[in-house]
Amino acid sequence: MKLSAVNSLLFSLLVLGSSASHASFLNPPATTAAPDSTLSQQGRDPAQFPGYIEQLKAQARQQGFDDATIETAFTGVHFVDRVIKADRGQLENKVTLSDYLNRVLTPEKIAQGRDYLQQYQNQLQPIANASGVQAHYIVALWALESHFGNIQGREEVVSALATLAFEGRREAFFTKELMAALRIIQNQQMTAAELKGSWAGAMGQSQFMPSSFLNYGKDGDGDGKIDIWNNLDDVFASTANYLQREGWRAGQGWGVEVTLPAGFDAQQAGLKTSQAKSPAQWLQAGVQVMHPENNSNSGQRAWIVTPQDGDGRSFMVYDNFRTLMRWNRSYYFAISIGMMADAITAQPAVQ
Questions:
Q1: Domain boundaries of the chain, sorted by first residue
Q2: Boundaries of each Transglycosylase SLT domain copy (predicted)?
Q3: Contact, 123 vs 236, CB < 8 A?
Q4: I need a surface site. Which of 43, 115, 124, 233 has the fewest CB within 10 A?
Protein backbone atom coordinates (compact mmCIF):
# COMPACT_ATOMS: atom_id res chain seq x y z
CA MET A 1 0.00 0.00 0.00
CA LYS A 2 1.38 3.41 -0.91
CA LEU A 3 1.59 6.08 1.76
CA SER A 4 0.96 9.72 1.02
CA ALA A 5 3.98 12.03 1.27
CA VAL A 6 2.83 13.26 4.66
CA ASN A 7 2.13 9.78 6.01
CA SER A 8 5.42 8.50 4.64
CA LEU A 9 7.29 11.21 6.49
CA LEU A 10 5.29 10.56 9.64
CA PHE A 11 5.95 6.82 9.46
CA SER A 12 9.68 7.39 9.04
CA LEU A 13 9.64 9.61 12.12
CA LEU A 14 7.88 6.95 14.16
CA VAL A 15 10.50 4.31 13.44
CA LEU A 16 13.76 6.27 13.21
CA GLY A 17 15.60 8.42 15.67
CA SER A 18 12.89 8.20 18.30
CA SER A 19 15.01 7.83 21.37
CA ALA A 20 14.77 10.87 23.48
CA SER A 21 17.33 10.39 26.11
CA HIS A 22 19.04 9.55 22.89
CA ALA A 23 17.24 12.48 21.21
CA SER A 24 14.87 14.31 23.50
CA PHE A 25 13.37 16.44 20.74
CA LEU A 26 11.65 13.54 19.00
CA ASN A 27 8.38 13.13 20.83
CA PRO A 28 5.36 11.86 18.94
CA PRO A 29 3.45 14.16 18.82
CA ALA A 30 6.16 16.80 19.12
CA THR A 31 5.71 20.01 21.02
CA THR A 32 8.77 22.22 21.14
CA ALA A 33 9.05 25.84 22.14
CA ALA A 34 11.38 27.73 19.82
CA PRO A 35 14.05 29.94 21.37
CA ASP A 36 13.97 33.67 20.71
CA SER A 37 16.65 33.53 18.04
CA THR A 38 18.32 30.61 16.28
CA LEU A 39 20.84 30.27 13.50
CA SER A 40 18.13 28.74 11.32
CA GLN A 41 15.92 31.78 11.85
CA GLN A 42 18.86 33.96 10.89
CA GLY A 43 18.92 32.21 7.54
CA ARG A 44 22.26 30.43 7.54
CA ASP A 45 23.14 29.53 3.96
CA PRO A 46 24.31 25.95 3.18
CA ALA A 47 27.21 27.57 1.32
CA GLN A 48 28.60 28.41 4.75
CA PHE A 49 28.68 24.72 5.76
CA PRO A 50 32.36 24.07 4.86
CA GLY A 51 33.43 26.98 7.04
CA TYR A 52 31.27 25.65 9.86
CA ILE A 53 32.98 22.26 9.56
CA GLU A 54 36.32 23.97 10.14
CA GLN A 55 34.89 25.45 13.35
CA LEU A 56 33.79 21.97 14.45
CA LYS A 57 37.26 20.61 13.72
CA ALA A 58 38.80 23.36 15.84
CA GLN A 59 36.38 22.55 18.65
CA ALA A 60 37.31 18.87 18.39
CA ARG A 61 40.99 19.75 18.73
CA GLN A 62 40.20 21.82 21.82
CA GLN A 63 38.50 18.75 23.30
CA GLY A 64 41.64 16.70 22.82
CA PHE A 65 40.92 14.73 19.65
CA ASP A 66 44.03 14.03 17.61
CA ASP A 67 44.41 14.95 13.96
CA ALA A 68 44.04 11.34 12.81
CA THR A 69 40.61 10.99 14.46
CA ILE A 70 39.46 14.36 13.13
CA GLU A 71 40.61 13.48 9.62
CA THR A 72 38.84 10.13 9.76
CA ALA A 73 35.64 11.64 11.14
CA PHE A 74 35.32 14.56 8.75
CA THR A 75 36.54 12.93 5.52
CA GLY A 76 33.60 13.11 3.12
CA VAL A 77 31.40 15.11 5.51
CA HIS A 78 28.60 16.85 3.63
CA PHE A 79 25.46 18.91 4.12
CA VAL A 80 22.36 16.68 4.10
CA ASP A 81 19.34 18.68 3.03
CA ARG A 82 16.85 15.87 3.75
CA VAL A 83 17.96 15.89 7.40
CA ILE A 84 16.84 19.49 7.76
CA LYS A 85 13.53 18.72 6.04
CA ALA A 86 12.91 15.77 8.35
CA ASP A 87 13.80 17.75 11.48
CA ARG A 88 11.48 20.61 10.58
CA GLY A 89 8.72 18.37 9.26
CA GLN A 90 8.49 16.25 12.42
CA LEU A 91 7.37 19.25 14.44
CA GLU A 92 4.43 19.87 12.12
CA ASN A 93 2.86 16.42 12.35
CA LYS A 94 0.18 15.64 14.90
CA VAL A 95 -1.18 12.18 15.49
CA THR A 96 -3.59 10.82 18.08
CA LEU A 97 -2.50 8.10 20.48
CA SER A 98 -4.84 5.53 18.94
CA ASP A 99 -3.57 6.28 15.44
CA TYR A 100 0.03 6.07 16.65
CA LEU A 101 -0.55 2.72 18.37
CA ASN A 102 -2.33 1.33 15.31
CA ARG A 103 0.67 2.25 13.19
CA VAL A 104 3.40 0.86 15.42
CA LEU A 105 1.66 -2.13 17.09
CA THR A 106 0.65 -4.11 14.04
CA PRO A 107 -0.45 -7.75 14.33
CA GLU A 108 2.51 -8.74 12.15
CA LYS A 109 5.01 -7.01 14.41
CA ILE A 110 3.46 -8.51 17.54
CA ALA A 111 3.60 -12.00 16.01
CA GLN A 112 7.20 -11.48 15.01
CA GLY A 113 8.00 -10.28 18.52
CA ARG A 114 6.53 -13.46 19.99
CA ASP A 115 8.59 -15.56 17.59
CA TYR A 116 11.82 -13.70 18.37
CA LEU A 117 11.22 -13.85 22.12
CA GLN A 118 11.30 -17.63 21.79
CA GLN A 119 13.97 -17.82 19.10
CA TYR A 120 16.49 -15.76 21.08
CA GLN A 121 15.55 -16.99 24.54
CA ASN A 122 19.01 -18.45 25.15
CA GLN A 123 20.59 -15.05 24.48
CA LEU A 124 17.93 -12.95 26.18
CA GLN A 125 17.41 -14.84 29.42
CA PRO A 126 20.95 -14.56 30.83
CA ILE A 127 20.84 -10.80 30.15
CA ALA A 128 17.42 -10.55 31.79
CA ASN A 129 18.61 -12.51 34.82
CA ALA A 130 21.71 -10.35 35.24
CA SER A 131 20.00 -6.98 34.70
CA GLY A 132 16.51 -7.54 36.08
CA VAL A 133 15.03 -6.27 32.80
CA GLN A 134 12.47 -8.77 31.53
CA ALA A 135 13.23 -10.21 28.10
CA HIS A 136 9.92 -9.12 26.59
CA TYR A 137 10.73 -5.45 27.27
CA ILE A 138 14.09 -5.85 25.53
CA VAL A 139 12.31 -7.35 22.52
CA ALA A 140 9.64 -4.62 22.59
CA LEU A 141 12.27 -1.89 22.39
CA TRP A 142 14.07 -3.77 19.64
CA ALA A 143 10.78 -4.03 17.73
CA LEU A 144 9.77 -0.39 17.96
CA GLU A 145 13.16 1.26 17.69
CA SER A 146 14.37 -0.48 14.53
CA HIS A 147 11.74 -3.06 13.52
CA PHE A 148 13.99 -5.84 14.84
CA GLY A 149 17.07 -4.28 13.25
CA ASN A 150 15.56 -3.97 9.78
CA ILE A 151 15.24 -0.16 9.82
CA GLN A 152 18.37 1.39 11.32
CA GLY A 153 18.83 4.38 9.04
CA ARG A 154 21.39 4.86 6.31
CA GLU A 155 22.67 8.36 7.02
CA GLU A 156 26.32 8.94 7.82
CA VAL A 157 25.97 10.05 11.42
CA VAL A 158 28.77 12.64 11.34
CA SER A 159 27.24 14.40 8.32
CA ALA A 160 23.72 14.25 9.81
CA LEU A 161 24.80 15.66 13.17
CA ALA A 162 27.00 18.32 11.60
CA THR A 163 24.08 19.39 9.40
CA LEU A 164 21.69 19.60 12.36
CA ALA A 165 24.23 21.52 14.44
CA PHE A 166 24.75 23.91 11.52
CA GLU A 167 20.98 24.42 11.13
CA GLY A 168 21.10 25.82 14.62
CA ARG A 169 17.79 25.12 16.30
CA ARG A 170 19.53 22.71 18.69
CA GLU A 171 23.12 23.55 17.94
CA ALA A 172 24.54 22.79 21.40
CA PHE A 173 22.80 19.40 21.59
CA PHE A 174 23.89 18.22 18.17
CA THR A 175 27.43 19.53 18.60
CA LYS A 176 27.70 17.52 21.82
CA GLU A 177 26.41 14.43 20.02
CA LEU A 178 28.85 15.03 17.17
CA MET A 179 31.77 15.09 19.60
CA ALA A 180 30.45 11.84 21.09
CA ALA A 181 30.40 10.36 17.57
CA LEU A 182 34.05 11.32 17.19
CA ARG A 183 34.78 9.49 20.45
CA ILE A 184 33.09 6.37 19.04
CA ILE A 185 35.16 6.59 15.86
CA GLN A 186 38.30 6.89 17.98
CA ASN A 187 37.41 4.14 20.48
CA GLN A 188 35.90 1.68 18.02
CA GLN A 189 38.37 2.40 15.22
CA MET A 190 35.53 3.04 12.80
CA THR A 191 35.31 5.33 9.78
CA ALA A 192 32.67 7.99 9.33
CA ALA A 193 31.21 5.95 6.46
CA GLU A 194 30.75 2.97 8.80
CA LEU A 195 29.00 5.04 11.48
CA LYS A 196 25.45 4.88 10.10
CA GLY A 197 22.15 5.86 11.69
CA SER A 198 18.90 7.77 11.34
CA TRP A 199 18.57 11.33 10.09
CA ALA A 200 18.77 12.47 13.73
CA GLY A 201 21.96 10.51 14.46
CA ALA A 202 20.35 7.59 16.32
CA MET A 203 22.34 4.47 15.64
CA GLY A 204 21.98 0.75 15.31
CA GLN A 205 19.27 -1.70 16.27
CA SER A 206 18.72 0.05 19.61
CA GLN A 207 18.83 3.52 18.00
CA PHE A 208 21.23 5.01 20.54
CA MET A 209 22.41 8.55 20.09
CA PRO A 210 26.24 8.68 20.25
CA SER A 211 26.28 9.88 23.87
CA SER A 212 23.98 7.02 24.87
CA PHE A 213 26.24 4.57 23.06
CA LEU A 214 29.20 5.83 25.11
CA ASN A 215 27.24 5.75 28.37
CA TYR A 216 25.23 2.55 28.01
CA GLY A 217 26.66 0.49 25.16
CA LYS A 218 27.73 -2.94 26.42
CA ASP A 219 29.76 -5.80 25.02
CA GLY A 220 27.31 -8.68 25.30
CA ASP A 221 29.47 -11.51 23.99
CA GLY A 222 32.90 -10.62 25.35
CA ASP A 223 34.58 -10.05 21.99
CA GLY A 224 35.97 -6.69 23.10
CA LYS A 225 33.75 -4.61 20.83
CA ILE A 226 30.32 -2.99 21.13
CA ASP A 227 28.42 -3.51 17.89
CA ILE A 228 24.79 -2.39 18.13
CA TRP A 229 24.46 -2.56 14.33
CA ASN A 230 25.06 -6.27 13.73
CA ASN A 231 25.61 -8.13 17.01
CA LEU A 232 22.38 -9.10 18.80
CA ASP A 233 24.21 -9.97 22.02
CA ASP A 234 25.46 -6.39 22.16
CA VAL A 235 22.05 -4.98 21.16
CA PHE A 236 20.24 -6.89 23.91
CA ALA A 237 22.92 -6.23 26.55
CA SER A 238 23.07 -2.50 25.74
CA THR A 239 19.28 -2.15 25.89
CA ALA A 240 19.10 -3.91 29.26
CA ASN A 241 22.08 -1.94 30.57
CA TYR A 242 20.36 1.35 29.75
CA LEU A 243 17.14 0.41 31.53
CA GLN A 244 18.89 -1.13 34.52
CA ARG A 245 21.08 1.91 35.10
CA GLU A 246 18.12 4.25 34.70
CA GLY A 247 16.23 2.58 37.53
CA TRP A 248 14.34 -0.42 36.14
CA ARG A 249 12.43 -2.35 38.83
CA ALA A 250 13.03 -6.06 38.30
CA GLY A 251 9.86 -8.11 37.91
CA GLN A 252 7.51 -5.14 37.81
CA GLY A 253 5.21 -4.09 34.98
CA TRP A 254 4.80 -0.72 33.29
CA GLY A 255 1.15 0.16 33.77
CA VAL A 256 -2.38 -0.47 32.59
CA GLU A 257 -5.12 1.47 30.82
CA VAL A 258 -7.79 2.86 33.13
CA THR A 259 -10.97 4.88 33.11
CA LEU A 260 -11.15 7.89 35.37
CA PRO A 261 -14.10 8.80 37.60
CA ALA A 262 -16.35 11.70 36.71
CA GLY A 263 -14.93 14.94 38.00
CA PHE A 264 -11.35 13.64 38.17
CA ASP A 265 -9.02 16.55 38.95
CA ALA A 266 -6.66 16.88 35.99
CA GLN A 267 -4.05 18.38 38.33
CA GLN A 268 -3.59 14.92 39.82
CA ALA A 269 -2.32 13.53 36.51
CA GLY A 270 1.40 13.57 35.82
CA LEU A 271 4.68 11.88 36.65
CA LYS A 272 6.01 14.09 39.43
CA THR A 273 7.08 12.16 42.51
CA SER A 274 4.61 14.20 44.54
CA GLN A 275 1.74 12.98 42.32
CA ALA A 276 2.30 9.31 43.12
CA LYS A 277 -0.20 7.23 45.08
CA SER A 278 -0.40 3.53 45.71
CA PRO A 279 -2.46 1.57 43.16
CA ALA A 280 -4.97 0.85 45.92
CA GLN A 281 -5.40 4.55 46.62
CA TRP A 282 -6.14 5.27 42.98
CA LEU A 283 -8.69 2.48 42.88
CA GLN A 284 -10.32 3.79 46.06
CA ALA A 285 -10.55 7.19 44.35
CA GLY A 286 -12.66 5.65 41.58
CA VAL A 287 -10.03 4.80 38.97
CA GLN A 288 -11.02 1.59 37.18
CA VAL A 289 -8.59 -0.80 35.49
CA MET A 290 -9.74 -1.72 32.00
CA HIS A 291 -7.64 -4.87 31.53
CA PRO A 292 -6.85 -6.42 34.92
CA GLU A 293 -5.00 -9.29 33.26
CA ASN A 294 -2.27 -6.81 32.29
CA ASN A 295 -1.93 -5.40 35.80
CA SER A 296 0.40 -7.88 37.52
CA ASN A 297 3.51 -6.83 39.46
CA SER A 298 2.29 -3.27 39.78
CA GLY A 299 4.77 -2.12 42.43
CA GLN A 300 4.27 0.31 45.27
CA ARG A 301 3.82 3.63 43.45
CA ALA A 302 1.53 4.61 40.62
CA TRP A 303 0.76 7.71 38.59
CA ILE A 304 -2.10 8.68 36.28
CA VAL A 305 -1.15 9.93 32.82
CA THR A 306 -3.50 11.34 30.21
CA PRO A 307 -1.49 12.01 27.02
CA GLN A 308 -2.18 15.14 25.04
CA ASP A 309 -4.07 14.19 21.86
CA GLY A 310 -4.59 10.82 23.52
CA ASP A 311 -8.24 10.41 22.50
CA GLY A 312 -9.21 10.80 26.16
CA ARG A 313 -7.38 7.59 27.10
CA SER A 314 -5.76 7.37 30.53
CA PHE A 315 -3.25 5.05 32.14
CA MET A 316 -2.12 4.07 35.62
CA VAL A 317 1.65 3.66 35.34
CA TYR A 318 4.47 2.53 37.60
CA ASP A 319 8.15 3.22 38.14
CA ASN A 320 9.19 1.28 35.05
CA PHE A 321 7.10 3.60 32.92
CA ARG A 322 9.16 6.51 34.25
CA THR A 323 12.30 4.59 33.26
CA LEU A 324 10.92 4.13 29.73
CA MET A 325 10.32 7.87 29.65
CA ARG A 326 14.04 8.38 30.26
CA TRP A 327 14.69 6.35 27.12
CA ASN A 328 12.27 8.57 25.22
CA ARG A 329 10.41 11.47 26.82
CA SER A 330 7.15 10.70 25.07
CA TYR A 331 4.01 9.26 26.62
CA TYR A 332 3.16 7.74 23.24
CA PHE A 333 6.46 5.91 22.99
CA ALA A 334 6.49 4.60 26.56
CA ILE A 335 2.88 3.39 26.27
CA SER A 336 3.65 1.65 23.00
CA ILE A 337 6.63 -0.18 24.54
CA GLY A 338 4.53 -1.33 27.47
CA MET A 339 1.70 -2.48 25.22
CA MET A 340 4.13 -4.27 22.90
CA ALA A 341 5.70 -6.08 25.85
CA ASP A 342 2.25 -7.10 27.07
CA ALA A 343 1.17 -8.24 23.62
CA ILE A 344 4.12 -10.49 22.89
CA THR A 345 3.70 -12.33 26.17
CA ALA A 346 -0.09 -12.67 25.88
CA GLN A 347 -1.66 -15.82 24.51
CA PRO A 348 -2.51 -15.21 20.83
CA ALA A 349 -6.21 -15.30 20.09
CA VAL A 350 -7.52 -18.55 18.66
CA GLN A 351 -8.59 -18.04 15.05
A1: 255-345
A2: 49-342
A3: yes
A4: 43
Burial of 261 (0-12, 13-18, 19+ CB in 10 A): exposed
- Cα–Cα distances (Å) from 138 to 21, 234, 296, 346, in that order, read 17, 12, 18, 16
- DSSP letter at 266 equals G
**Residue 216 · residue 228 · CB < 8 Å:** no
Residue 349's pLDDT is 56
Q: Is CATH 1.10.530.10 correct for 255-345? A: yes
**DSSP secondary structure string for all residues of 241-257:** HHHHHTT--TT---EEE
Q: Which residue has the higher pLDDT, 40 or 8?
A: 40
Task: For 192-241, write each residue's pLDDT tens digit.
Answer: 999 999 999 999 999 999 999 999 999 999 999 999 999 999 999 999 99
**SS3 call for 197:** strand
Would you put residue 247 in left (φ > 0), alpha (ψ -120 to 50) or beta?
left
